[in-house]
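Hello forum,

I keep getting stuck at the same step: I have a sequence, I want structure tokens, and every attempt I make locally crashes halfway through. Rather than fight my setup again tonight, could one of you with a working pipeline run this one for me? It's a single chain of 87 residues.
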Amino acid sequence: MESLVRNPRGRASLQNVLAHIDGQRQQFEADLFELLRIPSVSADPAYAPQVKNAAGWVRDQLSGMGLAAEVIETGGHAIVYAESPPV
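Reply #2:
Ran it on my machine without issues. Output:
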């Protein structure tokens, strides 16, 4: 991922963020479509394995962004939890 230009306070300007989003739009859309292709219908128990696959996909995406991400099993569907590293 390319670096954003930072202002004196260490934050990327809105203009830089929007330019980054525009520059990565095709990849962001491809990632979204990949997730949407997982038939994760949580209201239908027959899709429970795919719901779990979707949770793993989200975890992997967040981990790839540098977050500490995990899938947490619950009494129902698993949840995905992520934290950013200390700043």
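The longest strand covers residues 68-72. If your local run keeps crashing, start a new thread with the error log.
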